[in-house]
Structures are given as C-alpha cells and as structure tokens.
Amino acid sequence: MTEFAIVVVAALIVGLCVGSFLNVVIHRLPIMLDRGWRAQCAELRGEEIPEEPAYNLIVPRSACPACGHKITALENIPVVSWLALGGKCKACKSPISIRYPIVEILGAVLAVAAIVVFGATAKGAAACLLLWTLLALTMIDADTQLLPDDLTLPLVWAGLIVNLWGLFTPLASAVIGAVAGYLTLWTIYWLFRLIRGKEGMGYGDFKLLAALGAWLGWKMLPLIVLLSSVVGALIGVALIAFKGREHDLPIPFGPFLAIAGAIALFFGPPLVRLYLP
User: Fold this and answer.
1) Which residue, among 185, 78, 196, 204, has the nearest Cα to 137 in the 3D structure?
2) pLDDT per residue rounded down to tens, the chain (277 residues)
3) Nearest CA-CA partner of 263 in 223, 234, 232, 233
4) CA-CA distance, 135 to 106, in Å (whole number)?
5) Nearest-CA neighbor of 82 among 96, 63, 66, 103?
6) What is this structure's pTM?
C-alpha cells in the first residue's frame, strides 16, 4: 500500500506539471501555426517575410497578457500559485482564467487514473501520453476548431509504435484501426458534402479517429463513433436549449472524439464484448 501511495502521488505531481505545460501548448501552438501559415503565404506571393521575435513552446517566458508581467517560477506552481494569487496577476490584478488550474487538475486526474488502471508500467505511461494529448487537442479544438497535424499525426505513429509490443491491441488490429478510422469519417465527410453541399467536419477529425484506431484497435471504432455522437448530440442540444446557441453554428467534433476515446481506453473491452462477444 505504501508503494502504491507513492506511485499515485508521483503520478499526481507529474500530471500537474504536464498539465501546466499543456496550458502552454494549448495557447501557443495555434499562434505558432498561424505565424507559419502567414509566412508560407507571404513566400508564395513573393513577398519579403518580416523578421519576428522567436515564439515557440519555450520562448518567450510566460507573461500576463494584460500588463506583460513576466511569470516567475513561484507564480507558476500548478494550481497552488493560482490559489495563492487569488486568481489574479500579481502585478496588475487582472483576472487569470480558471481554465489554467482546471487543465492542470485534469492532467493530474488522467495520470492517476491511467496509473491506477494500468499500473506503473509501460502501458500506464503510454496511456498517460495518449490522455494528455487528447486533453490538449480537446482544448485547442474548442478554442479554434483546429486539430493540429503537429499533434494528431505523431499520435497516429505513437499508437502504432506502442502496439508493436501489443500494449493495447495487436499490431494488425492497430494498423487496420488507423486505416479504418480515417476512412470512416472521410466517407461520412464526402457523403454529407454531396448531400448537403457543405462540409460537416474537418480533416483533423479523420486523423484523430485514425490515431484512436491505431492506439485501441479497429474493434473500438464503432464504440468510439457511437459514444462521440451521443456526447456531441447531448452537448449540442444543451447549448441550444440553455445558452441560446444558433443550431447552424458549427460545433467542434474533436472534443467528443477525445472523450469517447478516453472512455474506450478505460472501459472499452467490456463494452465491445456487448457487440463482439
């Protein structure tokens, strides 16, 4: 029990720290992509690409968006610093979004859940990697309706690599899952476009489902699609009913796929046996 408690506490601390880093990824990666796209467009137009300060996941240091105050190490302790500062910038007292500690807490909760279910093993560490990436993709898609290739494509390859040793599913099932996951939503996309004359989802959704298929195998795909559709429908109806959201406004599908993938990771095998005994 003592060893188990130590492992859980370690997973909690690592999860909080990773959650803090995920906040950086969620905020900066879309900006980095936008800068890259603008530079590519300028190059194609034959324009001179302006010099810009370095901007990536490491530099510049995190700062308050309101006053530019540089965040110190003591002000960057996951959850604790937010509580100690009362959810406000130390310099200008501007409010700091509660989403930052929420993402940190989610990172910790997911890590602890993965280690409790799969153990302090390679499988548990791989599950943490999958869940943390799904968390980052969920928040980015909710903010920007983008599922960056910088995250989805490495996630596909990572799923195939971890299943070289059959951590979650045999390699053959992982390969078929990656192909079938992509083609499933690709087919739905084109059928919807032919029938309705407009796009129903983005290409990032294809790649995310391919990644989940690579990690969990083809047998999980029907479950993931069903769960994501149910979750999406419930949340969509709730947004329309309680927040007055227009029914024709697009709702990102990536978060629902990510939630369904996490459910399938933890509870997939017994649920799959209901339709594939």
Assistant:
1) 204
2) 788 899 999 999 999 999 999 999 999 999 999 999 988 888 888 888 778 888 999 988 888 888 888 998 889 999 999 999 999 998 899 999 999 999 999 999 999 999 999 999 999 999 999 999 999 999 999 999 999 999 999 999 999 999 999 999 999 999 999 999 999 999 988 888 888 877 778 889 999 999 999 999 999 999 999 999 888 888 877 777 776 666 666 788 999 999 999 999 999 888 888 877 7
3) 223
4) 8
5) 96
6) 0.93
The residue to which tokens 């499933």 are assigned = 184
- Residues 86 and 95: beta-carbon distance below 8 Å: no
d(CA 158, CA 147): 17
User: In this structure, what token pair is assigned to residue 272?
Assistant: 């799959």
Q: Which amino acid is at 37?
A: W
> What are the phi and psi torsion angles at 70 (to 5°)?
-70, 130
Query: What b-and-e string marks burial along 161-199, b requiring 16 or more CB atoms within 10 Å of the CB?
Result: ebbeeebbbebebbbbbbebbbebbbeebeeeeeeeeee
DSSP string covering 104-157 = HHHHHHHHHHHHHHH-SSHHHHHHHHHHHHHHHHHHHHHHHS---HHHHHHHHH
Query: What is the b/e burial string over 65-98, where b = at least 16 CB atoms within 10 angstroms of the residue's CB?
Result: eeeebebeeebeebbebbeeeeeebbeeeeebee
26 is written with which tokens?
A: 């969620």
**What type of residue sits at position 94?**
S
Hey, is 216 helix, strand or coil? helix
